[in-house]
């Protein structure tokens, strides 16, 4: 299997830089500089190794058969390009992550719609400075004082009422 030649970086540095937090920009810049220097070194090397002039070595080396032995071993040497075994796993992870992101986006859109409804209700209310007790009771029936149906004692907090039960740390009830 012939080695594939790298033509250039396959990393989208601009898209990656947009996702890097400000406090990690120096590390990102250092990483990019190192990556670019490695890429330049690879691209500076020739695609094929230089041809060896075996005849010149045969004429200079006095040991008979040594150059021929080296030539046979050199030509028999085949360094295989590593097989790509992880691309399938990475693509599966990418599909899973994309699905999770889409699920999160749809759930977030539902929450946003609910929050926008709540904000619209709050904006429709009278400002508290202009609100009367009756307006407050109409807007917040669960919080308003109701002396007829739910009489309370001053200061009208839950712990000052007759039916209040304090819970201790042990989970026991204390009256």
TrEMBL record:
InterPro entries: ATP_synth_F0_dsu_mt, ATP_synth_F0_dsu_sf_mt. One of its GO terms (cellular component) is proton-transporting ATP synthase complex. The keyword Mitochondrion applies. GO terms for molecular function: proton transmembrane transporter activity. It is found in: Mitochondrion inner membrane. The keyword Mitochondrion applies. Keywords: CF(0), Hydrogen ion transport, Ion transport, Membrane, Mitochondrion, Mitochondrion inner membrane, Transport. GO terms for biological process: proton motive force-driven ATP synthesis. Mitochondrial membrane ATP synthase (F(1)F(0) ATP synthase or Complex V) produces ATP from ADP in the presence of a proton gradient across the membrane which is generated by electron transport complexes of the respiratory chain. F-type ATPases consist of two structural domains, F(1) - containing the extramembraneous catalytic core, and F(0) - containing the membrane proton channel, linked together by a central stalk and a peripheral stalk. During catalysis, ATP synthesis in the catalytic domain of F(1) is coupled via a rotary mechanism of the central stalk subunits to proton translocation. Belongs to the ATPase d subunit family. This is ATP synthase subunit d, mitochondrial.
């Amino acid at each position: 299997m012939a080695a594939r030649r790298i033509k250039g970086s396959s990393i989208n540095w601009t898209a990656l830089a947009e996702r890097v937090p400000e406090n990690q920009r120096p590390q990102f810049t250092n990483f990019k500089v190192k990556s670019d220097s490695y890429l330049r070194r690879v691209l500076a090397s020739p695609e094929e190794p230089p041809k060896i002039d075996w005849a010149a070595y045969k004429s200079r080396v006095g040991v008979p058969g040594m150059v021929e032995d080296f030539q046979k071993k050199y030509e028999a040497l085949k360094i295989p390009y590593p097989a790509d075994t992880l691309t399938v796993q990475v693509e599966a992870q990418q599909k899973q992550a994309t699905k999770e992101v889409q699920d999160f986006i749809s759930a977030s859109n539902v929450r946003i719609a609910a929050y926008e409804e709540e904000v619209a209700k709050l904006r429709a209310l009278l400002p508290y400075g202009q609100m009367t007790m009756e307006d407050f009771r109409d807007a917040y029936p669960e919080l308003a004082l109701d002396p007829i149906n739910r009489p309370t004692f001053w200061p009208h907090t839950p712990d000052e009422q007759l039916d209040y039960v304090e819970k201790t740390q042990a989970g026991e009830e204390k009256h």
